[in-house]
């Protein structure tokens, strides 16, 4: 049975539904990410669950209890926000211990809990440090320790890494997931960063305009986006509209740059008459190389109009007729560079196993 169940939750401001009939569930020990663009309602939804805002209609059931009449102070939920709100006049120990003292823990228990948490977040020996002298990443870890110190039954994190640089954010994503999983607390994590959600979540709830667009594991949501919005927001680049066609030999997709042969498993999943072509599924060849290709299925003449180095791979912007696509080149060894360059004629071959239906 789910630990948290949200049913038809609605909240409006000035007549606009910022949370619109939202329903989803959270299992015990699960990390659920509320993902979506700024203003989509995810923070308001978090505040409704926390009891910091009153909802207009719907139900919030936590461990079989209806929370509609339960004030935030009685919900035993831990909260961590982008604005950390560490107490500047308290040192590290006092910040982490604050919630424990409010719950009348003994001094010995407080000492033990703070010591254990500092070790867990990698800041052993920092108990007497001034929080104002800590780095951004260290402050984030102290804020996390403070949120989990009173052993909340639900941990809620609202854009906790939003103010950090990308390298530190990537490092802390792994640390936060490891810590939360180690203590086993059920968590709801709000972010607009798709990579953050894909890295941290057990389940993603994708939102837009106050509504849930899709729910699933990171792999399910990424590999099978529910619609074009989901595909674009999750970072898919080659989203092509067209029309499904079939004959006695093949199932194909007619689009702006020609006919694309599909695998049967993808053809049956088309809903919006659109496909995604994974950048890894487009191979590029020179004129000399293309002469050695056995099959001409899904082979198109193209021109290279852009070339970028992106982390561990190259990305090419190619033009087939009037259609612009992105193809990626993954080096086979350190230092390998592709022979193709901008404004060069080439040939693109699309692997149907890297095509997903929308």
List the helices and strands and how they pair.
Blueprint: E1 4-13, E2 16-26, E3 31-35, H1 42-50, E4 57-62, E5 65-66, E6 77-81, H2 92-102, H3 107-120, H4 136-148, E7 154-158, H5 166-183, E8 186-191, H6 194-200, E9 203-208, E10 211-216, H7 218-223, H8 228-233, E11 239-246, E12 251-255, E13 258-262, H9 264-267, E14 274-277, E15 282-285, H10 287-290, E16 299-310, E17 313-320, E18 323-329, E19 345-350, E20 355-357
Parallel strand pairs: 3-8, 3-9, 6-7, 7-8
Antiparallel strand pairs: 1-2, 1-4, 4-5, 9-10, 11-12, 11-14, 12-13, 14-20, 15-19, 16-17, 16-19, 17-18
Helix pairs in contact: 2-3, 2-4
Which key features would you list for this structure?
OB fold (Dihydrolipoamide Acetyltransferase, E2P), alpha+beta, 5-stranded antiparallel β-sheet, 10 helices, Rossmann fold, 2 domains, 358 residues
């Amino acid at each position: 049975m789910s630990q948290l169940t949200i049913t038809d939750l609605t909240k409006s401001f000035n007549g606009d539904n910022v949370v619109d009939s939202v329903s989803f569930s959270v299992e015990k020990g699960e990390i659920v990410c509320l993902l979506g663009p700024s203003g989509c309602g995810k923070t308001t939804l978090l505040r409704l669950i926390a009891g910091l805002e009153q909802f207009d209609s719907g139900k919030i059931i936590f461990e079989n209890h209806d929370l509609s009449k339960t004030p935030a102070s009685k919900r035993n939920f831990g909260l961590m926000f982008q604005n950390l709100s560490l107490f500047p006049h308290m040192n590290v120990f006092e910040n982490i211990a604050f919630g424990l003292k409010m719950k009348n823990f003994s001094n010995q228990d407080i000492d033990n809990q703070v010591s254990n948490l500092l070790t867990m977040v990698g800041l052993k020996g920092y108990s007497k440090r001034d929080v104002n002298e800590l780095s951004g990443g260290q402050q984030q870890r102290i804020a996390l320790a403070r949120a989990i110190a009173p052993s909340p039954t639900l941990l809620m994190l609202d854009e906790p890494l939003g103010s950090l640089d990308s390298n530190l954010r990537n490092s802390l994503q792994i640390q936060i997931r490891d810590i939360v999983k180690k203590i086993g607390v059920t968590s709801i994590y709000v972010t607009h960063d798709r990579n953050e959600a894909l890295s941290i979540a057990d389940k993603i709830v994708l939102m837009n305009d106050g509504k849930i667009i899709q729910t699933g594991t990171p792999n399910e949501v990424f590999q099978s986006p529910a619609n074009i919005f989901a595909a674009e927001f999750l970072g898919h680049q080659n989203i092509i509209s067209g029309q499904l066609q079939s004959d006695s030999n093949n199932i194909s997709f007619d689009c702006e740059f020609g006919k694309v042969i599909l695998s049967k498993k993808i053809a049956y999943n088309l809903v919006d008459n659109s496909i995604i072509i994974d950048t890894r599924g487009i191979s590029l060849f020179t004129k000399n190389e293309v002469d050695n290709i056995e099959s001409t299925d899904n082979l198109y003449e193209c021109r290279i109009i852009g070339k970028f180095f992106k982390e561990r791979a190259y990305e090419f912007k190619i033009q087939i007729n009037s259609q612009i696509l992105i193809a990626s080149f993954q080096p086979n060894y350190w230092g390998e560079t592709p022979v193709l360059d901008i404004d060069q004629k080439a040939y693109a071959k699309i692997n149907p196993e890297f095509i997903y239906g929308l």
